[in-house]
Amino acid sequence: MYKLQIALLIMLVGLGPANAVVTTFDDRAAFDAAVAGLIIVDDDFDTDIAQAQSIVFVSGVESINAAPPLSFFTDNSVTGGLYRNALERTNEPVNTSITWTFPVPVTGFGFDVFRADNTGLRVTIDDGSGSQTFLIYDVIMGTGNAANGFAGFVGMAPFSTVQFTSAPADFDSFEMDNLTFASPIPVPAAFWLFGSAVLLLARLRR
Question: Largest alpha-carbon pair distance within the chain?
């Protein structure tokens, strides 16, 4: 009987965090349904933000490149209604990662992506169940060498940061639009007041 209890305990532990996974979506409507009831923040990237190693979107998300962006590209900037960046492993300075930090812990986020390479751009998420990495091209069900589409992610528990990386010895530039993140926690009022003139361009909905 004692051995049986131990066996059952091992099975229950095995069914715990190991099975808690991030769910991916290639359809925005399905993603919206999955985060229904949470506080949703949308960012349409309609406000230009100058290129820098660290920038903050209108929605409060901070985007940090591992290395200073190349001046002759638009890496880590918002221009023309798009967020633009690149993972650069072929020129100096080498930018091996991009880290997004959300203004509040989120349980889901999604975006439209353009020119996602079939071997390059990937995102790593840890919702407390273990670090998981996804090739964006696969999430959006891409075809050909590069693809456009929607990529959405919903975790089992809140997380505050995600990291974008690329394949070794690869150059992967991309654009994003219509960022959405979902949180059980409201974005702090102080943040909205501080940027109220600009934040009118972002929509907060429930």
Answer: 70
